[in-house]
């Protein structure tokens, strides 16, 4: 189910502006990798290049190589649509489809692949909601609109919608930044459970969160305003937070800037 | 290969829809191109000095020559009068709605009626003025009656666009002015109106362009004439759209040629108004995208 | 508004009293005869039929155009293309009428015969004779005239779809069309529906273009290719010049009916919008 991602020499642009430059890293399967760094350093941009969501923005483009095991995501003839199917994404703000019920939200991605029997859909919906620790809270109101849930529940609904299509990798772009502490805790527990099955990459502003949930951490920074963001260093999370090898990393995690 | 490729069915469907959407746009543009091409091509035949400076007096339906001077003059007077009546009332109503009415019951009632009025058919507006002016007050068909009918159509459009523009003026500006001790009416005159001015002008020009092309209300209130009548307050006048309608309904080629030339003149006037309005709007906000 | 209704009613009553037939069901329109006989039946039918046909033709194209401008065309030229469609609305209706009667009527002869020959089993396309100056041609002109307003409103609602919902669909591995089906269309449906209602109201009130094209007959026929067709508005424009006192009153009465129909349609459109903004608040 889970795969390794290998990035080499990746640049991303918004029009003429270069947002991130020359990033190379390896993301291990069945683990949680956290991206940290100050605002505007390009960590979300980089995350979006991993499932080709970056190019959805008009004028945005990517150069470099991203390998999912042995497949080049930016290789010729690779359809971004199928890449996104293999690599799912959870966004900063919960975004369930407002016109759909809870059930339809989870089934939305499934139904893209043609007709599936009702019983099979029921099964996957339940499995996914259980997987997102949401089943017990919503099982009696599957036909109510998803927008009626609390923020934390909506975010877990989005995670359920994402894992329903059985991706190899889960990308999470600051999934807790719009949530209260209790909901955040619920999501963090969920991430720890999900890593048995998926390769997880999470962007976070919150260093405690990175320390709590991730196995490896990557620190991004930009040399100056207007310069592209770069990967400063990447290491085991424990090593990174106790003994960073770069001065900039130490400054950032001890709160001296950012 | 771990990245499953997209099924052919889904890809084909996506492509089909893309083609349909492009096709829809092409289908929408074809009539526009066809209308403009034909109007220019056929209109040029009679778009000459005579056409712009002569009337149809003593010109038989089968004769060549003749012009639309009387109609152009009539249109300018009718639209001008209609604007004189509806623009001040429209803008004052909009000011009331935004600055004084707020969410009160009266303001909401006015808003509702204005909304519904924008949808009334132009022929009904014409009938109304006919019933009120010609039949009830027993006055003559005249350019002024036409102007009244046009202003019934114009007013709601002016109110709507002016209201939108006034609403765009940030409250901070008003409060800044109040904080300086400026009374409300002066704030409106000196701060709010100048800020919204270009937007309001754009809206008014678009409204003017729209009523310039209206035919049905004129038909019922201005009636027809072939001679020049420079006084909009007495007797029948002519209007350019009316002229086109009248000539187009005749079976002779000479009349049809005049109709095309009239259509060309009308389109030129309307497009010019539109263009100026858009340019003003574009000027004001070069940064605003689509 | 109330004034409009009052004056129209006041001027219509004497004519209605003079009428020798039932205003609501009579098909003939001969108010200038003695005794006067007239009824709204055929006119109302023609109005509704032509507008419904126009709407059926304009809707798919208008939604396509709106999607093209909001989601398919390159960003840079989308604004300019939208302006081109708006220009369609700026052409005065009498010009469309002229274009319709001189260009489209002869042009439609061929396609109409084709439809009649191969799809004649379908009631709409049946009948004999087949002419260019038909209900179908008038409906096409109406469709062109209401297309810009439907397209403009639909485009606005499509552009209001939250970006994050579109991204959610794309991130699930939806193609562009699937994204539109999943996120854009459900969100925009009420807006598009009210746009359709406004377009319908406009088609029913349109006068001059159809007055030039309609063959102005009285009767109810479903064949849209034959020399039939009339509408309330067109009848007012055409009949007015020759109308006597009763005739004018009769026309005013028919205008009142048109007024009421369009009022109902427009209010329905507003209500759809209002209900939606109430629900999302």
TrEMBL record, chain A:
<dbReference type="GO" id="GO:0005315">
    <property type="term" value="F:phosphate transmembrane transporter activity"/>
</dbReference>
<dbReference type="GO" id="GO:0035435">
    <property type="term" value="P:phosphate ion transmembrane transport"/>
</dbReference>
<dbReference type="GO" id="GO:0016020">
    <property type="term" value="C:membrane"/>
</dbReference>
<dbReference type="InterPro" id="IPR003439">
    <property type="entry name" value="ABC_transporter-like_ATP-bd"/>
</dbReference>
<dbReference type="InterPro" id="IPR027417">
    <property type="entry name" value="P-loop_NTPase"/>
</dbReference>
<dbReference type="InterPro" id="IPR017871">
    <property type="entry name" value="ABC_transporter-like_CS"/>
</dbReference>
<dbReference type="Pfam" id="PF00005">
    <property type="entry name" value="ABC_tran"/>
</dbReference>
<keyword id="KW-0813">Transport</keyword>
<feature type="domain" description="ABC transporter">
    <location>
        <begin position="5"/>
        <end position="247"/>
    </location>
</feature>
<dbReference type="InterPro" id="IPR005670">
    <property type="entry name" value="PstB-like"/>
</dbReference>
<dbReference type="GO" id="GO:0005524">
    <property type="term" value="F:ATP binding"/>
</dbReference>
<keyword id="KW-1278">Translocase</keyword>
<keyword id="KW-0547">Nucleotide-binding</keyword>
<dbReference type="InterPro" id="IPR003593">
    <property type="entry name" value="AAA+_ATPase"/>
</dbReference>
<protein>
    <submittedName>
        <fullName>Phosphate import ATP-binding protein PstB</fullName>
    </submittedName>
</protein>
From TrEMBL, chain B:
<keyword id="KW-0812">Transmembrane</keyword>
<feature type="transmembrane region" description="Helical">
    <location>
        <begin position="191"/>
        <end position="211"/>
    </location>
</feature>
<dbReference type="GO" id="GO:0005315">
    <property type="term" value="F:phosphate transmembrane transporter activity"/>
</dbReference>
<dbReference type="InterPro" id="IPR035906">
    <property type="entry name" value="MetI-like_sf"/>
</dbReference>
<comment type="function">
    <text>Part of the binding-protein-dependent transport system for phosphate; probably responsible for the translocation of the substrate across the membrane.</text>
</comment>
<dbReference type="Pfam" id="PF00528">
    <property type="entry name" value="BPD_transp_1"/>
</dbReference>
<comment type="similarity">
    <text>Belongs to the binding-protein-dependent transport system permease family. CysTW subfamily.</text>
</comment>
<protein>
    <recommendedName>
        <fullName>Phosphate transport system permease protein PstA</fullName>
    </recommendedName>
</protein>
<keyword id="KW-0592">Phosphate transport</keyword>
<dbReference type="GO" id="GO:0035435">
    <property type="term" value="P:phosphate ion transmembrane transport"/>
</dbReference>
<dbReference type="GO" id="GO:0005886">
    <property type="term" value="C:plasma membrane"/>
</dbReference>
<feature type="transmembrane region" description="Helical">
    <location>
        <begin position="141"/>
        <end position="159"/>
    </location>
</feature>
<feature type="domain" description="ABC transmembrane type-1">
    <location>
        <begin position="72"/>
        <end position="277"/>
    </location>
</feature>
<dbReference type="InterPro" id="IPR000515">
    <property type="entry name" value="MetI-like"/>
</dbReference>
<feature type="transmembrane region" description="Helical">
    <location>
        <begin position="259"/>
        <end position="281"/>
    </location>
</feature>
UniProtKB/TrEMBL annotation, chain C:
<feature type="transmembrane region" description="Helical">
    <location>
        <begin position="207"/>
        <end position="226"/>
    </location>
</feature>
<feature type="transmembrane region" description="Helical">
    <location>
        <begin position="81"/>
        <end position="110"/>
    </location>
</feature>
<keyword id="KW-1133">Transmembrane helix</keyword>
<comment type="function">
    <text>Part of the binding-protein-dependent transport system for phosphate; probably responsible for the translocation of the substrate across the membrane.</text>
</comment>
<dbReference type="InterPro" id="IPR011864">
    <property type="entry name" value="Phosphate_PstC"/>
</dbReference>
<dbReference type="InterPro" id="IPR035906">
    <property type="entry name" value="MetI-like_sf"/>
</dbReference>
<dbReference type="Pfam" id="PF00528">
    <property type="entry name" value="BPD_transp_1"/>
</dbReference>
<feature type="domain" description="ABC transmembrane type-1">
    <location>
        <begin position="44"/>
        <end position="269"/>
    </location>
</feature>
<dbReference type="GO" id="GO:0006817">
    <property type="term" value="P:phosphate ion transport"/>
</dbReference>
<comment type="similarity">
    <text>Belongs to the binding-protein-dependent transport system permease family. CysTW subfamily.</text>
</comment>
<feature type="transmembrane region" description="Helical">
    <location>
        <begin position="246"/>
        <end position="269"/>
    </location>
</feature>
<keyword id="KW-0813">Transport</keyword>
<dbReference type="GO" id="GO:0005886">
    <property type="term" value="C:plasma membrane"/>
</dbReference>
<dbReference type="GO" id="GO:0005315">
    <property type="term" value="F:phosphate transmembrane transporter activity"/>
</dbReference>
<dbReference type="InterPro" id="IPR051124">
    <property type="entry name" value="Phosphate_Transport_Permease"/>
</dbReference>
């Amino acid at each position: 189910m889970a795969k390794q991602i290998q990035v080499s020499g990746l640049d991303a642009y918004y029009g003429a502006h270069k947002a991130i430059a020359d990033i190379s890293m390896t993301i291990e399967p069945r683990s949680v990798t956290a991206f940290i760094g100050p605002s505007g350093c390009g960590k979300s941009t980089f995350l979006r290049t991993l499932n080709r969501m970056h190019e959805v923005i008009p004028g945005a483009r990517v150069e470099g190589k991203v390998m999912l095991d042995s497949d080049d995501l930016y290789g010729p003839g690779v359809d971004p649509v199928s890449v996104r199917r293999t690599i799912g994404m959870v966004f900063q703000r919960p975004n369930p489809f407002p016109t759909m019920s809870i059930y339809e939200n989870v089934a939305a991605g499934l139904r893209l692949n043609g007709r599936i029997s009702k019983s099979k859909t029921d099964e996957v919906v339940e499995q996914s909601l259980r997987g997102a620790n949401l089943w017990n809270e919503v099982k009696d109101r599957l036909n109510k609109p998803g927008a009626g849930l609390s923020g934390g529940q909506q975010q877990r609904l989005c995670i359920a919608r994402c894992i329903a299509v059985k991706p190899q990798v889960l990308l999470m772009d600051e999934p807790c930044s719009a949530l209260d502490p209790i909901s955040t805790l619920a999501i963090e527990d969920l991430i720890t459970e999900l890593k048995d099955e998926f390769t997880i990459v999470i962007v976070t502003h919150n260093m405690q969160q990175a320390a709590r949930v991730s196995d490896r951490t990557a620190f991004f920074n930009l040399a100056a305003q207007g310069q592209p963001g770069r990967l400063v260093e990447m290491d085991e999370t424990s090593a990174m937070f106790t003994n960073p090898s770069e001065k900039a990393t130490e400054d950032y995690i001890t709160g001296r800037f950012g | 290969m771990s990245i499953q490729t997209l099924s052919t069915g889904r890809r084909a469907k996506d492509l089909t829809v893309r083609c349909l959407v492009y096709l829809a746009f092409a289908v929408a543009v074809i009539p526009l191109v066809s209308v403009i091409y034909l109007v220019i091509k056929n209109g040029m035949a009679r778009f000459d000095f005579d056409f712009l400076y002569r009337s149809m007096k003593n010109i038989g339906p089968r004769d060549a020559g003749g012009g639309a001077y009387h109609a152009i003059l009539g249109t300018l007077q009718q639209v001008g009068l209609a604007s004189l009546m509806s623009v001040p009332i429209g803008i004052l109503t909009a000011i009331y709605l935004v600055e004084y009415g707020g969410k009160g019951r009266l303001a909401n009632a006015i808003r509702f009626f204005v909304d519904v009025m924008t949808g009334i058919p132009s022929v009904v507006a014409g009938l109304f003025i006919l019933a009120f002016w010609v039949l009830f007050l027993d006055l003559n068909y005249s350019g002024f009656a036409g102007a009244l009918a046009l202003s019934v159509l114009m007013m709601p459009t002016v109110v709507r666009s002016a209201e939108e523009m006034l609403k765009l003026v940030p409250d901070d500006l008003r409060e800044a002015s109040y904080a300086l001790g400026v009374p409300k009416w002066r704030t409106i005159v000196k701060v709010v109106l100048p800020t919204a001015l270009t937007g309001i002008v754009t809206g008014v020009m678009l409204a003017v362009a729209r009523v310039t092309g209206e035919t049905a209300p004129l038909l019922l209130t201005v009636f027809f004439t072939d001679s020049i009548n420079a006084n909009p307050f007495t007797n029948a006048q002519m209007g350019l759209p009316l002229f086109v309608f009248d000539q187009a309904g005749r079976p002779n080629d000479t009349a049809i040629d005049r109709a095309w030339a009239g259509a060309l003149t009308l389109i030129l006037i309307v497009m010019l108004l539109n263009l100026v309005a858009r340019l003003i709007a574009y000027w004001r906000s070069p940064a605003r995208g689509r | 508004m109330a004034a409009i209704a009052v004056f129209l009613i006041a001027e219509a009553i004497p004519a209605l009293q003079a009428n020798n037939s039932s205003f609501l069901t009579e098909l003939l329109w001969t108010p200038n005869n003695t005794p006067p006989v007239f009824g709204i039946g055929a006119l109302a039918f023609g109005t509704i039929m032509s507008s419904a046909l126009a709407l059926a033709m304009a809707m798919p194209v208008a939604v396509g155009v709106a999607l093209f401008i909001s989601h398919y065309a390159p960003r840079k030229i989308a604004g300019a293309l939208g302006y081109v469609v708006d220009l369609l609305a700026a052409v005065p209706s009498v010009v469309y009428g002229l274009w319709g009667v001189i260009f489209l009527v002869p042009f439609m002869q061929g396609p109409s015969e084709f439809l009649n020959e191969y799809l004649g089993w379908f009631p709409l396309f049946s009948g004999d004779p087949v002419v260019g100056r038909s209900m179908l041609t008038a409906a096409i002109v109406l469709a062109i005239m209401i297309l810009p307003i439907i397209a403009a409103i639909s485009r606005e609602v499509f552009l209001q779809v939250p970006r994050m919902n579109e991204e959610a669909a794309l991130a699930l591995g939806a193609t562009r069309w699937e994204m539109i089906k999943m996120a854009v269309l459900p969100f925009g449906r009420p807006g598009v529906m009210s746009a359709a209602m406004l377009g319908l109201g406009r088609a029913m009130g349109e006068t001059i273009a159809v007055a030039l094209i309609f063959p102005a007959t009285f009767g109810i026929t479903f064949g849209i290719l034959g020399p039939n067709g009339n509408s309330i508005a067109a009848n007012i424009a055409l009949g007015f010049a020759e109308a006597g006192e009763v005739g004018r009153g009769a026309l005013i009465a028919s205008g009142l009916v048109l007024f009421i129909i369009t009022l109902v349609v427009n209010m329905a459109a507003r209500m759809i919008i209002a209900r939606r903004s109430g629900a999302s608040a």
